[in-house]
Write a structure and sequence with these properties.
The structure is a single chain. With about 260 residues, this protein is an alpha/beta fold. It has 2 domains: about 1-200, 2-enoyl-CoA Hydratase, Chain A, domain 1, CATH 3.90.226.10; about 205-250, Lyase 2-enoyl-coa Hydratase, Chain  A, domain 2 (Orthogonal Bundle), CATH 1.10.12. The chain is about 45% helix and about 15% strand.
Length: about 260
Amino acid sequence: MSAEFKTILYEKKGNAAWITLNRPEVLNAQNDLLRAEVVEALETARDDDEVYVIAITGAGERAFSAGADISEFPKRYPADIIKWKGRKGPYMVIREMPKPVIAAVNGLAFGGGCEIVLACDCVIAVEDAQFGQPEVRVGVIPGGGGTQILPRLIGEKKAKELIFSGRPITAAEALQMGMINQVVPRDKLIEATEKMIGDFLKNSPVILKLAKLAVNKSLETTLSVGMDCERDFFALCFGTEDQKEGARAFLEKRKPSYKGK
């Protein structure tokens, strides 16, 4: 599958799909082609019934993604950006993906790289990883969700400080702020990510989908509306074969055999 792409790698490992940003010579900077290929790979994983969990990482040891390819900026004009309205980039595709998406951050995650991280459901980072939204330093603001998702994760004041200054933070700081889930030694990154994937794969993919939809809804609406949505998603669980299997397996003290239905 990876041979079909020029700027990323796509690989299936059991019930997990791995997407690797593969422009290490430019710190996995995101040009138009890379973003389009990430979206294509995500949609491939979304539509593959054998894929239950998705992991995203970067090639090389220096960067997950250093952000947008600035070499494309001089030829950008407002009309170029406006015409993208309605076209979903990787950030929204990840957010709306009905499957858990894990970021395995192997280095710098700046700008659009940080925004991919923010969009993912869970994040594991190496100890020397760095995160930041440095867009103001090149004359723009975050354009892939940084001004919207970051405040929801770490609060308005800290988000404004990071966005207004453009300064990077360490993995330890990101962990303390609640931006990421785990910090691990570099040689443990894949192992830790595969362990998290394994933990998710123990559960029904259709129930995980409903759980993700419910949590995402909590960040998009009022508490009362969110509670109603949660109740509706909870009710939908009882219409699935996997809910019946999970309950039977628990009562029979055995491992459940989920079918994703």
